[in-house]
Amino acid sequence: MKIITRTIGAPFAAIYVFMLAACGGGGGGSTPPVITPSAALNSSNQTIAAQDVASSAYLPLMGAQTLTGAQTLDEGVLFSLARSQLNRLPNYLAAAKGNSTLTGVVQSQIYSCTYGGTVTASVSDADNNGVVSAGDSVTVAANNCVESEGTLTGALTFGVNNVTGTFGSDSYSGSLTMTFNGFTVSSSEFSAGANGSLTLSVSASGVNRVSTSVATPSLSVSGTYAGVTRSRSLTNYSATSTRTPNSTSGYETSYTLNGTLTSSALASQAISFATPTPFISLSSDDYPSSGVMLISGAANSKLKVTALPGSQVKLELDANGDDVYEGSTTLNWNTLM
């Protein structure tokens, strides 16, 4: 296969294109075994469990924002950066088309980053039409690329499974695969990395009418802060995000989250989670105002997380597994940050 490399001097940030959908992608391979919850939930770890699940399970859908509303420099930056690269796919395909008239030729183009370094976008335009369509793939490799979030290394690969309509418009549907290949970001304050793949499906049918689903058999993220490293992995994970117009608040978004989380904050033990009642956030909300998440631990222990109006959340603990919640605590969402 012939590979053509070109250098483009325009600033990396200048080609950013905003889209409606969050990032995603898909992983092939065998399905990992079902992990049985091994961390017993109790009064000493319930807050950690709620915070860890809320942040980890939400990242693949929303990038840097978690269910707790956090906008800090953490592992969420990886997904925010990945989303920005997904949004650039039309630019990468268009530039490759402008530089080639040959179908099946990989076009590698070098883009300058904002504060130094480069990224190389290797584009395979399956039908040579210069737009995002089925069979296209783009690998973006960071070469000490420095952006405001930190220094990027590693690579992201996007594979387009299918697209109907114009990718990223108010009316389209599609499915993509995104793979993190040792993708990392580091600064003087922290470092974070991700490995694994995501499957994304998006359907947009008008302004504020967007449905997104994300799934992965296995995705691992890690971060180091003040010399302390933490690691988390999602297994057999699936999530949905559905945005619809709301007459009083612009729009509302409904979220469902399901899977298993293994976290170093829980002594590298596992807990599972599901949303029997979807979380609902209005566009005017900082936090979900309704919905229920159920976190399950070892020995049938359970923690129910209920979103309340007024930026509050209620935690109910069943530590002995008798299906009776013996403890209840109401907190502000931001205490779970």
Helix-strand blueprint:
Blueprint lengths: L2 E9 L34 H17 L13 H12 L1 H10 L7 E7 L5 E7 L12 E11 L2 E16 L5 E16 L3 E16 L4 E16 L2 E19 L3 E14 L5 E14 L7 E7 L5 E7 L3 E7 L8 E6 L5
Parallel strand pairs: 1-2
Antiparallel strand pairs: 2-3, 3-4, 4-5, 5-6, 6-7, 7-8, 8-9, 9-10, 10-11, 11-12, 12-13, 13-14, 14-15
Quick synopsis:
The protein is mainly beta. It is 12% helix and 51% strand. It is globular and about 70 Å long.
Please characterize this protein's 3D structure.
With 337 residues, this protein is mostly beta strands. The chain has one domain. It has helices spanning 46-62, 76-87, 89-98, and strands at 3-11, 106-112, 118-124, 137-147, 150-165, 171-186, 190-205, 210-225, 228-246, 250-263, 269-282, 290-296, 302-308, 312-318, 327-332. The chain has a 15-stranded mixed sheet, with helices on one face. A hairpin with a 7-residue loop joins strand 11 and strand 12. The radius of gyration is 21 Å and the shape is globular. The N and C termini lie far apart (49 Å).
The largest β sheet comes out as: 15 strands, mixed
From the helix content, strand content and strand pairing, which structural class follows?
mainly beta
The rough form would be described as globular
Number of domains: 1
Q: What are the key terms here?
A:
51% strand; disordered N terminus; 337 residues; mainly beta
